Amino acid sequence: MLDTKWETFERSSQRDEMTFVGGLGYTLIALGPAIALFFTVIIGKPFLILTLIVSIFSWLISLVLIAGVWRAFLPSESNVWVYIPLLLSAVCCQEAARRAFWHLYLKVEDILNKIAVRLSKPRLHTVDKLEIALAFGFGHGLAHVIFFCLALLTPSFGPGTFYVPGCTQMSFFLMAALTGLSFLIIHTFSMVIAFDGHADGNKSQQIFAPGMHFLATFATLVNLAEGGCVYGVSATLSCAVITSAVCWKIQWDKAGADPFTSSNLNRTHH
What residue intervals traverse the membrane (predicted)? Predict the structure, then answer.
């Protein structure tokens, strides 16, 4: 009798441990790169932390505005068409915020350079500008993952898993984690691409950032089709890979023309 109870308890403990490991795995898929980026680039520089907070706050404001407008048109299975204008307006609002960030960045750069001159410190270098753009984009990406992914992953720490009836190829939690990871990468690196495009007057880069955002966003609609999650998730991941590759290429070319030096942000902002 005791042996039977002990075996039942042991199997239950093993199930709980496995579900916790599964939930942790999904969370790390979505947030792993964000954690690494925060602790390697952001955390040691107070100005970048402030930039990150401002970016998250602005993303939340855009989300609240969109939610307020579309509150009366909540999508359901009977009116799936509502998703299209909803996503379109959401992306337009976030892209408008990206443009506003660029103008804010110009003012911040001017202030920091004046402070640097006054304190006989170096002006902002290429790597400093890269880090500021990275922090702005990272804030948008992190907010997206937290509010659209982590809330969905909470049940993954419980017993069992969950599959959407229209997509039995992968669990709902894996789909949410991979989609969240994709948008984290897209938001982070597309901000760098857009800032660089505005600085150099490069129209293709200015168009690339919102274009990739639109493409990845509407690729998620494929998930609503029967068996479409495999193609929808693959499409968003492809957008993330392309965005990071383009960003890497742009910064690699800049590094050849103007080699990076150590960041001046943690000295300039004092």
Answer: 20-40, 47-74, 132-153, 173-195
Residue 3, classified by CB atoms within 10 Å of its CB into exposed (0-12), middle (13-18) or buried (19+), is exposed
How many Å apart are CA 69 and CA 66, to the nearest integer? 5
How many domains are there within the chain? 1
* 1 assigned to some structural domain: no
Give the tens place of pLDDT for each residue, 121-174: 777 778 888 889 999 999 999 998 988 887 777 766 666 666 777 777 888 888
Interval 15-47: pLDDT, tens? 444 577 777 888 888 889 999 999 999 998 888
Give domain status of residue 195, yes or no.
Answer: yes
Residue 55 is encoded by which pair of tokens? 């970016």
User: SS3 letters for 7-60?
Assistant: HHHHHHHHHHHHHHHHHHHHHHHHHHHHHHHHHHHHCCCHHHHHHHHHHHHHHH
Contacts 24+ apart (CB under 8 A), 1-9: none
Beta carbons within 8 Å of 88's beta carbon, 6+ residues apart: none
269 within some domain? no
CA distance 23 to 158: 8
Measure Cα distances from 270 to 39, 59, 125, 164, 265 in Å.
21, 27, 16, 52, 9
User: Which residue is associated with the tokens 């990071």?
Assistant: 244
Residue range(s) defining the domain that contains residue 138:
12-259
CB atoms under 10 Å from CB of 8, counted, come to: 10
